[in-house]
Amino acid sequence: MPRYETWVADTGSTVAGLLVLDGNDLRQLYLDPAWRGQGLGDRFIALAKQQAGRADAVDVPGQRGGPAVRRTTRLR
Predict the structure, then answer these.
(1) C-alpha to C-alpha distance for 52 and 25, rounded to whole angstroms
(2) Domain residues of the chain, as ranges?
(3) Given this model, what pLDDT does residue 56 score?
(4) What is the per-residue burial (b if ≥16 Cβ within 10 Å, else e) of 4-15?
(5) What distance in Å separates the CA atoms of residue 16 and residue 35, rounded to the nearest whole number?
C-alpha cells in the first residue's frame, strides 16, 4: 500500500504543479512560477482539505521521502 498520494496539475504540455499528501499531512506543494498567482495553489489546498474530509484537517509538517500514488488533473 502506497504511503503518499500525489496529485499533478498537467497543462497538456507541462506540469504546472504538484501536491503530495500523507493522510492529513501536506508533504509537498510545488507550483511552476508561470502558474503562481492564478489560483492553482488555492485549488491544491482545497483538494487537500477535501481529501482530508474537513476544512481544518490538513497539517503542514516537514518533507520526507517515500513511495507515491500518482493522480493527474488536466487544467482547463
Answers:
(1) 9
(2) 4-74
(3) 57
(4) bbbbbbeeeeee
(5) 6
Contact 4, 66 (CB under 8 A): yes
Query: Over pLDDT 70: what percentage of the chain?
Result: 67
pLDDT at 23 over 90: no
Three-state SS for the chain is: CCCEEEEEEECCCCEEEEEEEECCEEEEEEECHHHCCCCHHHHHHHHHHHHHCCCCCCECCCCCCCCEEEEEEECC
pTM exceeding 0.70: no
> CATH code for 4-74?
3.40.630.30
